[in-house]
Structures are given as structure tokens and as C-alpha cells.
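Input.
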Amino acid sequence: MQAAVGDQLHIQGRIVGKVEQQGEILEIRGDDGQPPYLVRFADGHEGLVYPGPDCFVEHPER
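Output.
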């Protein structure tokens, strides 16, 4: 998985009824766009994320 600052990270719910989380990637802590990523989620909290198979990156139009 590769990302850039400003991309959107989507984490799909693994449990029925759990909503998808979405956040903006603020920092890339790995090499060449690799994880971990510092992400600010829609509810305002920030966290360091190592994306799993339930995640995908959306690249906005630049």
C-alpha cells in the first residue's frame, strides 16, 4: 500500500453494522509512501495506523 499526505484512508467495518471509518493522512512514517500513517479521522481524533486488508487509500485529484 502506498499513500501520500492528503490522501484519504478508508477502514471498512469487519463486523456487521459497524460503519466505515475515514480519515486524512497527515504524515507518512514509512519509506516511499509505506505505512505507518498518522491519520486524522472524521471525528477529530488522530492515530498511527498500520493498514490491514480491510483498508484502502483514495487518492484525491491533484
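DSSP finds no helices and five strands in the chain.
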